[in-house]
């Protein structure tokens, strides 16, 4: 791997692109076409986003684990630090458990793409 290629794949730069829902390779195009619909590939650098079946199981796992962490953190804050009643906390956690995974949907895919880009790079789309 060349020195320029290593510099291009800096972790902070790729994570910044993932937070902004941009292509992890070039950072120009958005990974989302519209809400809940991801692009097949980057229109700028042709990096392939949608790969073989099962590729995004990792994105689903990231979404589930992040949701569980957020629910546990919110439970801790509401019960221990704020001192809310158990019933109020339970109602809030149910709402949080339903809304957070939906809100985090694109970011979980974006972070999974960024992880894959850092580990092995993204293949280029070839119309063939």
3D structure, described in words:
The chain is mainly alpha-helical and 128 residues long. It has a two-stranded antiparallel sheet. The chain has helices at residues 3-8, 11-19, 57-82, 86-103, 105-120, and strands at 32-34, 37-38. The protein contains five helices and two strands, in the order H-H-E-E-H-H-H. A hairpin with a 2-residue loop joins strand 1 and strand 2. The chain has one domain. The longest helix has 26 residues, at 57-82. Helices cover 59% and strands 4% of the residues. The chain is elongated.
Strand order of the largest sheet: 1-2
How large is the share of residues in beta strands?
A: under 5%
Q: How many H/I helical runs? A: 5
Radius of gyration: 18 Å
Shape: elongated
Please report the distance between the alpha carbons of the first and last residues.
Answer: 27 Å
